[in-house]
């Protein structure tokens, strides 16, 4: 017998607290110092392959400011034509800068120039490669190099297992290592895809009122 359930389970937002650093300890250390006003850096550029955690970081930074009742924005691969910065802006995060069209590139170029003279306003941009290899306006590429540039390294297999177990606990259940390993073998290996599959498994177990087991995971893969 199955049971229909409402999708009301608490899903953890991307935050700096639930980001697993892995080999990105230097990046996280500098970012934390900056957010604690112990460093004067105001421009960051993060790059790396899809699924390495860039979006998680940018969303976590914006969440940090919003939780402190400060004005912050996150835009994934776009910059609305009607967007303008104002004196209250504390943080602007632009994800997947390589997807910006010509108008958005020009707008971001102008934003860099505007924020350069601000006492404090953090601008964080991410891309799929180092700035010099981006197919963007050359003057914007120059601006992307103004601040600190960090590669975001993807988690190792063990770190992904730890991340999945942490996410499972946040959803209210324990996940055994052998289930994680099976998931890694059968799913796309980027963390976003793995977490989405884990959420699907959690919902499937609740609908069918069964515990999360390797047999249930196999059943879910067969069903899909």
Please tell me about this protein's structure.
This protein has 224 residues and is an alpha/beta fold. It has two domains: 25-151, P-loop containing nucleotide triphosphate hydrolases (Rossmann fold), CATH 3.40.50; 157-223, Orthogonal Bundle (Helicase, Ruva Protein, domain 3). 43% of the residues lie in helices and 12% in strands. The chain contains eight helices and five strands; from the N terminus they run H-E-H-E-E-H-E-H-E-H-H-H-H. It has a five-stranded parallel sheet with strand order 2-3-4-1-5, covered by helices on one side. Helix 3 crosses helix 4 and helix 5 (157-170) runs parallel beside helix 7. The model is unreliable at 1-11 (pLDDT under 50).
Gyration radius (Cα, Å) is 20 Å
Overall tally of domains? 2
Q: How far apart lie the N and C ends? A: 20 Å
Q: How many strands?
A: 5
Name the CATH superfamily classification of the largest domain: P-loop containing nucleotide triphosphate hydrolases
Strand order of the largest sheet: 2-3-4-1-5
Give the C-level CATH assignment of the largest domain: Alpha Beta
List SSEs in N-to-C order: HEHEEHEHEHHHH
By CATH, the architecture of the largest domain is named 3-Layer(aba) Sandwich
How would you sum up this structure in a few lines?
The protein contains eight helices and five strands; from the N terminus they run H-E-H-E-E-H-E-H-E-H-H-H-H. It has 224 residues and is α/β, with parallel strands linked by helices.
């Amino acid at each position: 017998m199955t049971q229909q359930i409402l999708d009301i389970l608490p899903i953890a937002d991307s935050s700096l607290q639930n980001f697993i650093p892995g080999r990105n300890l230097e990046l996280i250390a500098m970012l934390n110092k900056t957010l604690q006003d112990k460093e004067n850096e105001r421009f960051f550029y993060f790059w790396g392959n899809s699924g390495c955690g860039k979006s998680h970081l940018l969303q976590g930074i914006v969440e940090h400011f919003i939780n402190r009742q400060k004005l912050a924005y996150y835009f994934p691969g776009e910059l609305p034509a009607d967007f303008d910065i104002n004196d209250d802006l504390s943080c602007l995060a632009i994800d997947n800068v390589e997807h910006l069209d010509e108008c958005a590139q020009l707008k971001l170029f102008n934003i860099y120039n505007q924020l350069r003279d601000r006492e404090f306003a953090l601008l964080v941009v991410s891309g799929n490669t180092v700035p010099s290899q981006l197919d963007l306006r050359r003057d914007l590429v120059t601006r992307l190099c103004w601040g600190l540039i960090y590669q975001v390294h993807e988690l190792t297999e063990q770190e992904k297992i730890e991340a999945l177990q942490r996410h499972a606990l946040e959803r209210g259940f324990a996940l055994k290592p052998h289930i994680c390993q099976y998931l890694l073998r059968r799913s796309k290996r980027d963390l976003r895809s793995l977490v989405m599959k884990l959420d699907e498994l959690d919902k499937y177990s609740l609908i069918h009122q069964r515990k999360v087991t390797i047999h249930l995971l196999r059943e879910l893969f067969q069903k899909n």
